[in-house]
Write a structure and sequence with these properties.
single chain, mainly alpha, globular, binds iron/sulfur cluster, transcription regulation, 4Fe-4S, disulfide bond
């Protein structure tokens, strides 16, 4: 598990122009496309949610989408823990499904 913001060095946007990610309005949907293949998307999104970062695209979500998510789930104490747990469980299910398909 990475700590702090170590994940930032592995982000796909590391070499991108910040002006491409911190854009207003509908232009953010284009910026989100960059996040689709990013290996640290979970870390990035949970950081933005836990820190209540209000501007820019983080982890494939616009500021507006993050605000809506925070309003829908006001009791979440740690987005990092929640999203990492969800990712782990998803990977476990995929691994189990792959093992089952090999045996059938
Ligand atoms: S998820 Fe998107 S904003 Fe976050 S590090 Fe990756 S490319 Fe950058």
């Amino acid at each position: 598990m990475m700590t702090g913001t170590d994940w930032g060095r592995r982000g796909l946007c590391r070499t991108a122009d910040p002006d491409d990610l911190f854009v207003p309005g509908a232009t953010q949907n284009r910026a989100k496309a960059l996040c689709n293949g990013c290996v640290v998307r979970t870390e990035c999104l949970s950081y933005a949610l836990d820190q209540h970062i209000e501007y820019g695209v983080w982890g494939g979500m616009t500021e507006r989408e993050r605000r809506a998510l925070l309003r829908r789930r006001p009791t979440v104490v740690s987005w990092r823990r929640l999203l990492e747990t969800a990712r782990f469980e998803h990977e476990q299910r995929q691994s189990t499904a792959a093992a089952l398909s090999r045996t059938s």
